[in-house]
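Thread amino acids onto this structure.
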């Protein structure tokens, strides 16, 4: 039986899209977040795992190739699963092309973990689920921290506005949950649109964007019961 979420909940990627969407698309996003697909119908968990593995194990491109070979050798149980494995393999190919643009030299990279905390804004639970924590020393030898979030969509790329909204939420998440590791550096907040081949960093100025997020969450909370 398909899940129906009684309480307002939205993924950070969908909230980023919601903030720049048309009214019709906003309505659809609320419906889809209230009635999420079953776990087996998610398209990119294997790609997310493979890229995280690559980042945390020294960024050796052979690691991505190992995962691609594993996808190729898997025996799909359905047409959907075959398509999913093909898309995941393509995602790894696209990500490999992005690696030189990530600016991760002298950066300690570690996995976030299976059950990261959430953000709560205006009655809405925001599932952030970043892939990795980024840590680096600044020029004065002080620790700085950030996050990387992967975005997977072949047909709905992020634009500058949605990418910066997601970056702003990642920055908020870092400030709330990772402060023991050091202050957040907005330059270490990376939103990677894998298929589009673009990388967004969190903007230095984010107060107005956070205000927009609050208003959007208020709207989602108000409309949740009618979708």
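Threaded sequence (227 positions):
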């Amino acid at each position: 039986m398909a899940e129906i979420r009684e309480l307002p909940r939205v993924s950070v990627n969908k909230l980023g899209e919601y903030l720049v969407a048309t009214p019709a698309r906003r309505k659809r996003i609320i419906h889809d977040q209230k009635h999420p697909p079953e776990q087996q119908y998610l398209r990119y968990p294997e790609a997310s795992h493979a890229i995280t593995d690559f980042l945390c194990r020294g960024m050796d491109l052979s690691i991505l190739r190992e995962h691609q070979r594993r996808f190729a050798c898997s025996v799909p149980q359905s047409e959907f699963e075959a398509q999913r494995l093909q898309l995941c393999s393509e995602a790894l190919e696209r990500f490999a092309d992005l690696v030189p643009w990530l600016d991760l030299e002298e950066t300690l990279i570690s996995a976030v973990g299976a059950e990261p905390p959430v953000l709560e804004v205006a009655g809405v639970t925001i599932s952030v689920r970043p892939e990795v924590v980024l840590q680096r020393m600044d020029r004065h030898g002080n620790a700085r921290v950030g996050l990387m979030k992967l975005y997977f969509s072949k047909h709905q790329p992020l634009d500058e506005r949605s990418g910066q909204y997601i970056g702003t939420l990642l920055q908020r998440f870092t400030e709330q949950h990772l402060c023991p590791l050091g202050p957040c550096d907005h330059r270490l907040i990376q939103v990677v649109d894998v298929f589009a081949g673009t990388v967004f960093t969190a903007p230095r100025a984010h107060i107005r964007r956070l205000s927009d997020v609050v208003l959007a969450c208020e709207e989602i909370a108000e409309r949740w019961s009618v979708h």
